[in-house]
Amino acid sequence: MIRINCGVEFLNVYHEVLRIVEESRDEIILTLKELVKRPSYTTMEGHFDDEKSVVSYIYKFLSKNLDKQAKIYTQRIIHDNGKTSDNIIVVLGSGPKLFLIDAHVDTVSEGSKSLWFDANPFSAEEGVAEYVGNGKVVVRVRDNEAEVRIRDLMEDIWRRRRSKCVDIIYGRGSYDNKGSVASVMFMLKTLKTLIDMGYELQGTVIASFTVDEEGAQRGAKEYLKWLKRNYLASRAKSSKGYVENVLGVITEGSYGFKVLVGHRGIVWYILRTKGVSAHAATPHLGRNAVLDLARILVLLTDRYHELLSELNKFMQDNLLGNPIMTPGTTIVGGGIQSVEQVDGRVIRRSDINIVPDWAEATIDFRTVRGVMHPEDKDEIPTRIARTLENMIRKYYPDIEFEIEIMKDSVLYPIGLCSSISECEEDPDIAMLRTIARNMLGYDPGLGIAYGASHGYLFTYDADVKTIVEFGPAGGGAHAVHEYVEIDQVVRGSAIYAVAAINYFERREE
């Protein structure tokens, strides 16, 4: 219960926030459509003062709807490719506890436009998604229909709730991450409405709309520098190393507000093989580096369980599980000069009649916490590389190869606790789970994110206790036929608003 200070009436914050949000339903849907219609590729998200960009649209919305209740800042981010785009930061309230909520505004490219309904990946049209079982959803927009595979965590949500057919918005970025962006925008508007009614926010909400999440994550890195300088520098830390009275929430196109409490880290390796060139008519006089590379990739795949037993000697994690390796995410060698993929693929080749003397591939490795975490976190990438090398030499001692850690590719694994059962007892996690259950009518449960999020930066760069993903349901992220569920975006605004209020109002034991 919260008190509206201008009167004697007590209001249930849950019902009051939900009323405000439901009255804004049509506006939320319209806003989501406008966000999806504006392409916002990584590093091309736009500036606050250009007319047609996503960044400008968000900035104008916030400036109009928050009036003088909030402070709105912009940050100009300079990217590696020389382009620039803007973060937007909103500060609402002035209480000592901080509720940080982050929504990235950039998207990956749409790929081949011809694969999307009506060749329009930015249509932002309404449609439906129907769960048909076996990890599949049928997406329908007007007369178009396509089957979309969904991840296990999302299928778990479909099984937990009654409805098997939901209304959606279709288009690139709808799920990752503009549904969450819209929810956070209206979370802020909802809190401002409560303040106008006389409610005193007992803490400070800081919302960040960041750029470049799908790339080098420079937006989040620059935002966190600002945050530490202005809000975190003088704060004490808890026994777990987190700054006190601060909670971070990373909003993503996620799994129906399942509370994701950790994710594996990332290391990208370059595997190179060296051969001996010869005329293709006399291959026995040379050594084919491409075939040697293929042998290694097959070896790492077929004998992964053997490799895992060696990795488990220094990486063990009851929360995150086993590390995951994907060999051969990119491959090149021999006479390949270039590959261009713009609505098709153009490969330029030379020396087709020569035995290739070089080849290289990349390996995507998803790490878990080491046995001495966090003290050993910087050693893990090198120890993995040595373990890979030892296995390759054991089975192919005659192959000449090297393994290199790709520059700036290391992301550390994070976990809020040592196991799911321990996480279930955490008061912040339990709070978010309860709010989502009350708002959505089903228990979303807890889980581990498949990919990395800004959560690792909030955790390691700013020492903020951070929920790594907490966002609306959908499907097709980074794929064709992306969609987000309308009701989840609308209710998401209420979930985030109530979460902030409850976090501020809750008395620590």
Give start-end ranges of low-pLDDT stretches. Answer: 1-11
The tally of beta strands, per DSSP, is: 23
* Bulk shape: globular
**SS element count, helices:** 13
Radius of gyration: 25 Å
Strand order of the largest sheet: 3-4-10-5-11-21
Helix content: 25-40%
Tell me what portion of residues adopts beta-strand conformation: 25-35%
Mean pLDDT, rounded to whole units?
94
Global structural class:
alpha+beta
Strand count, sense and closure of the main sheet? 6 strands, mixed
Structure, described:
There is one protein chain. This protein has 509 residues and is of the alpha+beta class. It has 13 helices and 23 strands. The strands form six sheets. Strands 3-4-10-5-11-21 form a six-stranded mixed beta sheet, with helices on both faces. Strands 8-7-6-9-23-22 form a six-stranded antiparallel beta sheet. Helix 2 (25-37) crosses helix 5 (174-196) and helix 6 (218-232) packs across helix 12. The model is unreliable at 1-11 (pLDDT under 50).
Write a short abstract of this structure:
With 509 residues, the protein is of the alpha+beta class. Helix content is 33%, strand content 27%.
Topology:
Elements: E1 2-3, E2 10-11, H1 13-23, H2 25-37, H3 54-66, E3 70-78, E4 84-93, E5 97-104, E6 126-133, E7 136-141, E8 144-149, H4 152-160, E9 165-170, H5 174-196, E10 203-210, H6 218-232, E11 246-251, E12 259-263, E13 265-274, H7 289-302, H8 304-311, E14 324-333, E15 336-340, E16 346-349, E17 358-367, H9 380-395, E18 400-405, E19 414-415, H10 420-424, H11 427-440, E20 446-449, H12 455-462, E21 465-467, E22 474-475, E23 483-485, H13 486-505
Helix pairs in contact: 1-13, 2-5, 3-5, 5-13, 6-12, 11-13
